[in-house]
Amino acid sequence: MKPLAFHLAAFLREYLPGDRAYSAHTCDAYAYAFQLLLCFAAERYGSRPSALSLEQLDATLVLAFLEHIETIRGNSARTRNARLAAIKAFAHFIEYRVPSAVEQVRCIGAIPFKKTDEVLVDYLNHQELQALLDAPEPTTHSGTRDCAMLHVCFAAGLRVTELVCLRLDDVQTHPMTSIRIRGKGRRERILPLWKETAKVLRAWTAIRPETTAVEVFLNARGDAMTRYGFEYILAKHVRTAAKVCPSIGSKHVSPHVLRHTCAMHTLQATHDVRKVSLWLGHASVKSTEVYLRADPTAKLEALDAGVAPSLR
User: Fold this and answer.
1) Backbone angles phi and psi of 188, in degrees to 5
2) Is the omega angle on the peptide bond into residue 136 within 30 degrees of 0, that is, cis?
3) Left (φ > 0), alpha (ψ -120 to 50) or beta: where does 21 sit?
4) Which of 184, 189, 251, 275 is labelled catalytic?
5) Please, which residues bridge with residue 182 across strands?
6) Alpha carbon of residue 118 to chain centroid
């Protein structure tokens, strides 16, 4: 019986951050998936998580775990697939370390992902976006910071991790104001900023406290802003914006909705999905096609090109 703890520690501590160079957020997501799996397995086998063996992590256990998180925890099919992806990545890791587990790995690899609905992306229209950007009070210290975060997040179409990890040396002011983004999959891109966005960003950096943190945006303690801190700030300003624009109050506005909003507005302005893909830092234009389905203006040309049937 081979202990599971030794191989799992190597997978989470060395393989993911070192060999695969995954981000800290991805490593945390994989670690949480295995936290749930180990707790489930320990209860199922009546042992402690540290006492589990590699042989016990078989396809039967994985299938039972996936059913558990869907029925008992109420997770969606997308979450279920994310947990399965983490388990399959570990199985692939074990395949090259423990030859005797090849058949076990093959059975886990044969577990299919569930099909999910291709839902339309949520985004804010111009009135809702303007109400949100106007929500922070620009005369206060925190309001200046929040205004800069919201403007940069929307204008650059940033993921929340890209926003909070933005460093001072990533901001360039000459010959034009631009930011250097270290994006998903170790892909970097440089994005120019509107004059309005550059103005609010300069207003924040002018009053930004002097700390040892190298990140642009700081929390109230002077430390780097976290993704959860920005989510809290965004939710606060959404409530304020709802007083001016009630329609935004009925929407679930997450940091990624600002990214979707940037993509939709860019697509409607340029009518070029390739430019949207480059702006967002997508690995493939195929990932950007989701915005074509959500944009009604993209279908107007097809509607105008046809001839509507006459009414009796």
Assistant:
1) -100, 150
2) no
3) left
4) 184
5) 188
6) 17
pLDDT in tens, 8-49: 999 999 999 998 888 888 899 999 999 999 999 999 999 999
pLDDT of residue 285: 87
Quote the CA–CA distance of 123 and 135 in Å, as a whole number.
17
The DSSP H or E segment spanning 108 is helix 102-109
Structure confidence at residue 196 (pLDDT): 93
291 classed as catalytic: yes
pTM of the model: 0.80
7 catalytically annotated = no
Q: Rounded distance, CA 218 to CA 125, Å?
A: 29
Q: Which entry of 80, 159, 208, 265 is annotated as an active-site residue?
A: 159
* Catalytic residue chosen out of the listed positions 25, 97, 182, 256: 256
Amino acid identity of residue 80, one-letter, is: R
> Would you call 187 a catalytic residue per the annotation?
no
Q: Kindly name the residue from 7, 80, 265, 282 that is annotated as catalytic.
A: 282
Q: How would you classify residue 74: left for phi > 0, otherwise alpha for psi between -120 and 50, otherwise beta?
A: left
Q: Is 236 a catalytic residue?
A: no
